[in-house]
Amino acid sequence: MDKNEEQFIKQELLLRDYLASERTMMSVDRTFLAYIRTSLTLFIAGISFIKFFDSYIIQVLGWLLIPVAIFTFVLGVHRSMEMTTIINERAKENGYRVDSPSSIVRQPLYTLTNFLRDTLRAIYRSFLPATHHHERRS
């Protein structure tokens, strides 16, 4: 095998790996969008059941669908973030450089989710009693 052939094979493998990683990230985006679609459908169905039906059972079902929709949305955000982290960690472990930009679909929600998480943690910590960091350990 001459040098040109070897270089061509390396370039071909790099291209194949790059395209595979792009397909993987697009599948994460598709799954995330499916979670959003499902949560919106559940939410709208819940609102519709509450507003348009007089049956007590159907209204209760509507009220139950709303928290299920919120849970589905949060689960989708969590799983999408988790899968992206796992994919990036495995790529780095195997020596690949992760340089693909963040998804247009997920990045704004990640930013909002991180902001909300940090805000809730700060509020939670404000209610905890102060701890002394310089206490001696025995």
TrEMBL record:
It comes from the Bacteria. Coiled coil: none annotated. The keyword Transmembrane applies. Residues 29-81 form the DUF202 domain. InterPro entries: DUF202 (IPR003807). Pfam families: DUF202 (PF02656). It is found in: Endomembrane system. The keyword Transmembrane helix applies. One of its GO terms (cellular component) is endomembrane system. Keywords: Membrane, Transmembrane, Transmembrane helix. The chain crosses the membrane at residues 32-50, 56-77. It is a multi-pass membrane protein. This is DUF202 domain-containing protein.
